[in-house]
Amino acid sequence: MKSTLKFYLFFSLSFLFSMTCLFLFYCQLYSKTDYLSDLKAHIKFSIMPDDEKSTGYSLLHNVINLFANKVSNYAYVDLLTAANLCMIIILSFSIYLMTLFIRNYYDNYAQTYSLKSTFLTFGTSLVSMIITVMPGVSEGVYLGNGTPNPWHNPTYLICRPFSMLVFLMFIIVLNQSIKNQISKINLFLLTLFALLSMWFKPSFLISFLPTMACILGLFLLKKKIQLKNAILIGCSFLPAVIIIIFIYKFVFHGKSDNSISFGIGEFWHLYSKNLLISLALGMSFPIYVFILKIKNLNLDFQIAALNYFFSFLIVYFISETGERAAHGNFFWTYLFAMFFMFLVATKIFFLESKFTTWQKTLGFVLYGAHLGSGILYFSQILKGKVFF
Q1: How far apart are CA 330 and CA 328, in angstroms?
Q2: What is the spatial distance between Cα 61 and Cα 200, in angstroms, rounded to a whole number?
Q3: Are residues 346 and 123 in contact, defined by beta-carbon separation less than 8 angstroms?
C-alpha cells in the first residue's frame, strides 16, 4: 500500500475514533442519568469551588474559570460545549503523540505511516484490563484492576499528552547528555512539559520524579553522563515540584478530615480481594514482554518499568483519609504507569524484537485479550454503562 493511502487510512480512522469519542463526551456532559463521568463535576467545581477565594487546584479548573469569566459569562451550556471540543482536541493530540512514539520519531524523523503502526496506535488507545468473570476477585472490571484507558476523567485525559511529552523529551535530553550535547531548547521544553503535566494532574509525575532520579543516579554510577548534566536535567523538574507543593496545600491545608496516610494496601484492598490476579488482569501483556526482554531492556522500557514500580509502591502504601479515602486519587498514578508500560511493550513486541513462535503466539493471545476487553469496555461505556 502506498504511503499516501496509508496516511489517508490513519487520518480516516483518527476521524472516526474522534467522532465516536465526541459522541461519548457529549453524552457524559448532557446526560442527566446515564454516562457517569467526572467531567461535569470538574466544571461545576471550577466555577463554584469549595473555597471561594480559589478557582481550583488544577490548571484545567483555572482555564474553565477563565473561559467562564471572560468569554461565556458563566453560561453553563457554553462551558459544556467548549469542554466537549477541548476534550476532542486533546484526544486527537494524544493519538498523534502515540503515533510519533510508535514510529520512533526521536530516532528517525523520516519514518512513514504503516498499517502496523496505525493498528498499534489505535490498539494502544483502546486496550484495557482483561475483563473476566471471577467472583470474589474485585469489586468491578475497573476498580481494583486498573486500566490504561479510563474514559471518565478529564484531568487524566488532558494530562496524558503532556505526560507523553515529558516521557519523550526526557529520553531525548538523556540521550543528548550521554553525548554531552544537551540542547537548551529541549531542556526548556522538558521543564515546560513537566510543569504543565504536574499542573493539570500531578499523578504521573509523582512516580516519574523518583524514576528520573534513579535513572540519573544509575547513569552517573556507570559514568554515562557528567554530574553537571544530571544536575541540569534534575533542575528542569523544579518548577513542577513547586506546583505540587501548592496543590498539596490546596487539597489538604485546613481540612482536618483529609490527609495522607501510610499503610499496607489500604486502598487497593477496598476493591480487590486478590492483588496478584488483579495485577495479572490489568498488566498481563506488558509484564510478559518485560519478562521476555528483561536481559536486554532498552531505555524506553527501563524508564517505563521503573515508573510502574514506583507507581505500585505509591498506590499500595500511600492512601488518603477522610471523605477522600475511597476516591483512590493515588490510583491515577498507577493508571498512568500502566499506559506507558502498554505503549512501550506494544512497540517493542510488534516492531522491534524477534521472538520464537510460541513466544509470539502467547504475546498475541495476551494482547488480544487486552484489546478485545478494551473494545468491549469502550462499547459498554458508549451505551451509558457504569465505568467501574
Answers
A1: 5
A2: 9
A3: yes
Q: Do residues 60 and 158 lie in contact, with contact meaning Cβ atoms separated by under 8 Å?
A: yes
- Per-residue confidence (pLDDT) for residue 52, from 0 to 100: 46
Provide the pLDDT for residue 17: 82
Contact criterion met (CB below 8 Å) for 125 and 95: yes
Separation between Cα atoms, residue 243 and residue 237, nearest integer Å: 10
- Measured distance CA(104)–CA(107) in Å, rounded: 6
Of 293, 262, 174, nearest to 226 by C-alpha is: 174
Which segments of the chain are extended strands (E)?
259-262, 318-321
Distances (CA, A) of 339 to 121, 125, 242, 253: 12, 9, 26, 31
Total-model pTM:
0.88
First to last CA, the chain: 41
Residues, the chain: 388
Q: Which residue has the higher pLDDT, 95 or 142?
A: 95
How far apart CA 106 and CA 169 sit, in angstroms, is 9
